[in-house]
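Final report, closing paragraph on structural work. Over the funding period we assembled a curated collection of sequence-structure pairs, and we close with a single example.
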Amino acid sequence: MAIRARLNKTLLSLALLASPALYAADQNDKFAVKGAGISPCSTFIKAMENKDHTYYMFGGWLDGYITSLNQQLPDTFDITPWQTTELLMKIIESNCQQNPNQQIHSIAKAMVVQLMEQRITVGERYLQLEADKNLILQEGVIRNIKQKLDDKGHYDGDLTVSWDEKEITAMKAFQRTQQLEETGLPNQATLYKLFYGQDD
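Its predicted structure, as stored:
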């Protein structure tokens, strides 16, 4: 099942007016948008369908946008500590489908407000999971995952940064409740459901 099909209503119904406290602007609350951010949603949707050079242009713009916010926002090391660029673009695409006349920067701005609650405030070591060497997460993210699994009743262990059999079993149990592939790994689809899905 595609990640797009798993996006829940909470994030799909993003408000298009983000908190002004998150962004700097001039005295009229305006600022200049550069690059791909000025493009309309229709162009973005087409790029997502074709996966052409425009698709990578949007990805580069989004990475730069997130990097800039990480640098400027207070108490923030990373506002997207586990979300990949691909996942973020799928979220934007879903919201573009609902708001076809919006520019990309407006959609991205609204998305960031929703993502702020999962931000990491302090940079920590990265942990490469033994179960999948391609999964590399910050220690704080691992702790947050364990806490969320505990909140949902699937885990009762410690909140250290290990990811062993106990954590794998807990994640498989959660994946089973969400009808996801039972890998026991904190992949993108699973983490999206874990952090943004409706409570059980």
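The longest strand covers residues 126-128. The chain has nine helices and two strands. We thank the funder for supporting this effort.
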